[in-house]
UniProtKB/TrEMBL annotation:
Transmembrane segments: none annotated. It comes from Microctonus aethiopoides. Belongs to the tektin family. One of its GO terms (biological process) is cilium assembly. It is found in: Cytoplasm, Cytoskeleton, Cilium axoneme. InterPro entries: Tektin-like (IPR048256), Tektins (IPR000435). The keyword Cytoplasm applies. This is Tektin.
Length: 482
């Protein structure tokens, strides 16, 4: 396709090739090889080109513009025709005289009217200035009265805010003191739990006293969280109170400065010394708020302060009520735990006394069994002598000669006697073994009773001496209102 306008496009030399597409997010592009001609071979139609900076070989064709000055051709006939038209007639001269007379009369009449209007304008200006000064003085006096009134109101509100901030600060200290006082019952309750962990045996049970102690720990921790939640509120309230106090103090300071300036401005009159002209002062507007916004700002500050004091009193009442409720709940939990410990001690005492009685009876049984064992051993020793006699007789009869070595009635009797004595000894040994086994059983029972008794004595000592010894006095000194 043939080019119509613009710089010539470089001729295409090669073919266009497609780029590879190694990634799905990378598009496929194309590139081709072209031939670029040097700049001097391009035709530049610009007459402003500096020849010093024109490259060698650059073809330039300057532009031609028409001459607007020499293009208008003049002739002498034109000048003659122009000279004929510059003459006036007599009628034009008389008309010019009449016009000048009328112009003088009109000017004199206008001068008289101008003088009258000027005098009237001066009088009106003096009257307006006087009325304006009177109105300005009256408005300044009203402004001074408003500033004085709001200054008194702000001063009174400042005193109330300072008192309320002091009360809030004292409430904050009482709250921190109350939170600190909760550490004592929490520490005592945890120590009681640690002491009760030293119990042994079947005394290490999850009884009512331990449940009461765990519940007391939970109550104290919840109370701490409940009171600590008011700390941030107190901090925010004190911060807001201090901010309002600063706003009131700043507004009072601004009111004092404005009062002095307005009082000075109210006392200025036309005879005041040191008056100056400040050109363009009326165009300068240094105000930053709308008219009467100063009064509304002071009113808003007073309302904000009043609302803040109401919130402060409500927060103080809420903190006092929450603190009283927390201490009442902790007091009830403390009493419930003490009652549970007293009940537990009352349960352990009769069981301990009963164990002492059982231990005493078991001790008597052990003594009886031991004596029975000795009797059985003595009986076995006694029957051993009779057995030896029977054995000796039988051994002696084994030495009988020939036909005399017969199994006669005496032989049968002695053999029967030996069997009878052996049977008795076996019975005695069996009964002795039973007594010894029963003796071991009694010793085991006594050992169990002694271990149980020791565990109960230790548990009684822990609950009555260690735990209840820590809980004899209530650690919180704050007065509770019921």
């Amino acid at each position: 396709m043939e080019q119509v306008s613009g710089a010539p496009v470089p001729a295409r030399v090669g073919e266009m090739y497609r780029t590879p597409r190694p990634h799905p997010w990378r598009p496929t592009l194309g590139y081709e090889t072209i031939q670029v001609k040097p700049l001097p071979s391009q035709i530049v139609t610009n007459e402003l080109c500096d020849p010093c900076y024109t490259p060698s070989g650059m073809a330039t064709h300057p532009l031609k513009f028409p001459n607007l000055v020499t293009g208008f051709h003049r002739n002498p006939a034109h000048a003659a025709r122009t000279a004929l038209y510059t003459r006036y007639t007599p009628w034009d001269w008389h008309d010019n005289q009449i016009r000048l007379q009328n112009e003088v009369d009109a000017t004199r009449h206008y001068s008289d009217e101008l003088r009258d209007r000027s005098v009237r304008l001066i009088r009106e200006a003096e009257e307006k200035i006087k009325i304006g000064q009177i109105n300005s003085s009256r408005l300044l006096r009203d402004k001074i009265m408003d500033i004085t009134y709001w200054e008194r109101e702000l001063a009174a509100e400042l005193d109330k805010v300072i008192v309320e901030n002091a009360k809030m600060q004292e409430c904050m200290k009482d709250l921190q003191r109350a939170i600190q006082e909760l550490e004592a019952p929490l520490h005592i309750t945890q120590e009681c739990l640690y002491h009760r962990e030293a119990r042994k045996g079947n005394e290490l049970i999850h009884d009512e006293a331990e449940q009461a102690l765990l519940e007391e720990v939970e109550i104290v921790r919840n109370s701490q969280k409940k009171l600590e939640s008011f700390t941030d509120k107190c901090t925010d309230q004190l911060s807001n109170g201090r901010a309002v106090q600063n706003e009131i103090e700043l507004d009072i300071s601004n009111k004092n400065s404005s009062l002095g300036i307005d009082t000075m401005a109210h006392q200025i009159n036309n005879q005041t010394k040191g008056l100056e002209n400040y050109g363009g002062i009326e165009k300068y507007d240094p105000t930053i708020i709308e008219d009467d916004s100063g009064v509304s700002t002071s009113n808003d500050i007073v309302k904000k302060s009043q609302m803040l004091r109401i919130n402060s009193r409500n927060l103080q009442d809420e903190i006092a009520q929450a603190t009283n409720e927390v201490f009442q709940e902790i007091w009830r939990a403390w009493n419930n735990t003490n009652n549970a410990l007293t009940k537990r001690v009352a349960e352990i005492l009769p069981v301990k006394n009963k164990l002492l009685i059982l231990l005493e009876s078991i001790q008597r049984e052990i003594f009886s069994v031991k004596r029975n064992e000795e009797l059985l051993k003595k009986a076995v020793n006694d029957k051993s002598s009779a057995l030896k006699v029977a054995h000796t007789r039988l051994e002696a009869r084994t030495h009988r000669p020939q036909t005399e070595l017969c199994c006669d009635t005496a032989q049968h009797r002695m053999v029967h006697e030996v069997h009878t004595i052996k049977g008795m000894i076996d019975d005695f040994n069996e009964r002795l073994q039973e007594c010894e086994a029963h003796h071991q059983q009694l010793l085991l029972v006594r050992n169990n009773l002694e271990s149980d008794l020791k565990a109960k004595v230790d548990a009684l000592f822990i609950d009555r001496e260690k735990v209840m010894g820590l809980r004899r006095s209530y650690p919180i000194k704050t007065t509770i209102k019921f």
